[in-house]
Amino acid sequence: MESTEVAAYSKRVQITRMIVVVVLLIIWEVTARAGVMDVSWSSYPSQIFGQLSKWAMEGILWVHIGTTLNEMFWGFLLGSAMGIVAALINGRAQTLEKTLNPYILAIYSVPPVALAPLFILWFGLGVTGKIFLIASIVFFLVYLNTLAGVKEVDQDLIDSMRIMGADEKTIYTRVIIPNAGIWILTGLKQAVPKAITGAIAAEMMAAKSGMGYLIMESSSMLDIGGVLASLVVLLIVGLALTELVSRVERFLLRWKTA
């Protein structure tokens, strides 16, 4: 399939997706206003978007989004860096990997929501605990994917580089990291929605701002429209961040095959 055909197909898919969303919103709005659905528990699209407009004009929305994005950024950065470094080291040291991996997998099996109270107790109610919680979630996904990428590197290629006199630093920068790059990006893409989950879980337990706090505040007032409006924001943020990582991934794929 030529690039023009791929672009046309992609455009048709996007248009179809938009049509489906619009149709579902119209059905939701009509059924809610006709009394088929109980609006006290389901609200309706016009009310949700009206709530978003109100928050945006009052500036409340941007404050809460900014808080959550700040926590996510630093947590994502810290967790990604730690995951990549740990995987690059363990992937080349089999004894270390076999020693540590069972413990890493055991901790990974614990749900993030269960870890949130622990981080709050350790680091307090401020932003630090939330950042470390997000970092711990991101770490495992990036680590496991990067480790798989490192282990996929052809050992014969590494041996050939050694024969030509390459040191360990050169092997990492010229062979291992470039070949594991797609795996790293896959881990980052998988970590985006999990990072949002971690941030919201922490904010719902202990926070004075952030989208998780906004959800809890709306819920405490039985404001279903506010809760759904907050979820719409999180959906948009998640899609935008995932698309950003996907674009970087596609760029690197084109660069690698060029």
From TrEMBL:
It is a multi-pass membrane protein. This is ABC transporter permease. PROSITE patterns: ABC_TM1 (PS50928). One of its GO terms (biological process) is transmembrane transport. The chain crosses the membrane at residues 18-36, 72-91, 103-125, 131-150, 171-188, 224-246. Keywords: Cell membrane, Membrane, Transmembrane, Transmembrane helix, Transport. One of its GO terms (cellular component) is plasma membrane. InterPro entries: MetI-like (IPR000515), MetI-like_sf (IPR035906). Its main location: membrane. It is found in: Cell membrane.
